[in-house]
Amino acid sequence: MYTSTRDNYDIVSAAQAIKLGMVPAGGLFVPEKIPCFSLQEMMSLRDSTYQEIAQRVLTLFLDDYTEEEIQTSVKAAYNEKNFNHPLIAPLKHLREKTYVMELWHGPTAAFKDMALQIMPHLLSYAKKKVGEERETVILVATSGDTGKAALEGFKDVPGVRIIVFYPHKGVSKIQELQMTTTSSSNTFVVAVKGNFDDCQNAVKKVFSEREFGNELKRAGIELSSANSINWGRLLPQIVYYINAYMQLLKDGKISFGEKINFVVPTGNFGNILAAWYALQMGLPINKLICASNENKVLTDFFNTGRYDRNRGFVQTTSPSMDILISSNLERFLYEMSGHDGEKISAWMQELAENGGFRVDQSIMDAIGEVLAAGYADEIETKETIGRVFSETGYTLDTHTAVGMKVYEKYLEKTGDSALTVVDATASPFKFNNSVLQAIAGPDALIGKDEYEVLQALSEYTGQPVHPGLRDLDKKPVLHRRICTKEKVQEEIKSILNI
Ligand SMILES: *Cc1c(COP(=O)(O)O)cnc(C)c1O
What we know:
Layout: E1 2-4, H1 14-20, E2 29-31, H2 39-43, H3 50-61, H4 67-77, E3 91-95, E4 98-102, H5 113-116, H6 119-129, E5 135-141, H7 145-154, E6 160-167, H8 173-180, E7 187-193, H9 196-208, H10 210-218, E8 221-225, H11 231-250, E9 260-265, H12 270-280, E10 285-292, H13 297-304, E11 306-308, H14 329-336, H15 341-354, E12 356-358, H16 361-370, E13 371-375, H17 378-392, H18 398-414, E14 420-424, H19 432-440, H20 450-461, E15 481-484, H21 488-496
Parallel strand pairs: 4-14, 5-6, 5-8, 6-7, 7-15, 9-10, 9-14, 10-13
Antiparallel strand pairs: 1-2, 3-4, 11-12
Helix pairs in contact: 1-6, 3-4, 3-11, 4-6, 11-12, 17-18, 17-19, 19-20
Bound molecules: pyridoxal-5'-phosphate (PLP).
Pyridoxal-5'-phosphate binds next to helix 12.
């Protein structure tokens, strides 16, 4: 069963948690107990495929789903039609003890596909299970990548409409085109004049407005969320951490039970939290390394114990990490505080009212056992892309480069000799302008439009353009809505015709 991080809601089944998205009274659903494998059981996954590991992990957490429902969902999501690599999330050896886990082989070229290809199936089953017949309207706030991944996952799903809000001028041109060219009658895309936090706050506010909720109810509509606050987003991400370990074990790169590190370019703290759940399930992990860009609110928090969002928002070349309110941290703090819902409530209230809170030293000690944090600035990020390309021939995207740089700094400081997997969270083609400039010099963009830059990057790196980005220039822009952050609710009404 699933409980609220703020102890303010009844316990619910997995299906209910996935259907609701977040706790109606505020707070996030977390599993009451985290299922755990013995070391023997864990290592027995060595010869399992990605799909088999997904089946095992999902079954443990979704005990109100039938085996067949999970199997159908896994098959529909992780196949060679949706992912352009048979291993789904392959590892590439970069150098010495460093590996890269490519999480961008899905349809939209970012790691969000890993969860959003399966979540719509889990949601459809959840609705059936709880006898929900109302239409579901998915609201998504995106810093760039979630939006398109959610649109692809939910397009043409019966009984569902999806509305995506993204920061106007706050995403890359390619990201914007990916979203605004989506052709499906149940998808809507809105640019919000503001940054990602404005989008996320506006959407969170819509969820918490009772009166509006009742109005929707009368119109036969229920809201849900596809952001990583939904458990159905987080859960599928646990799978690739276990899968990565098994690939290394099978290839003889690590020994039975050997502990490894994961480096995670972090924004909303969803991806790295999934790694922490894998650790709790018994995966041998030494350290989780949390990497931030210049919006280093998490790095500061992990190094000082004070979360402080009162600071300038920096627009960086890794926009999917441009976040000052990292929603899933709430789940992590709930775990680190020994399930102290009252404390979490108080901190979240302080965060909402004053923009910050401070946690106890005992919690910082618990965090320090498993997690290290650092950040990379814009110059370092660009330098890392260029240097890694010239030294190894491997092309990092801007987010992955933040992770790589933070890992390099961590290595220098600690000398930690554990084998390390850096999450590659986006294809370099998705951030074509920044990546091409970093590897080919500042003049590389002159006179080129978006598509020519994709081509140039392909020629320069010898890699084919990611299939999800290939024909963008041939698709018409179908979505042109734009609104202020104050008008998000009205925009929703206008879209839904209520
Ligand atoms: C969403 C995203 C991130 C941040 O992931 P979180 O789960 O929000 O921490 C990092 N890199 C890319 C490319 C992303 O799309």
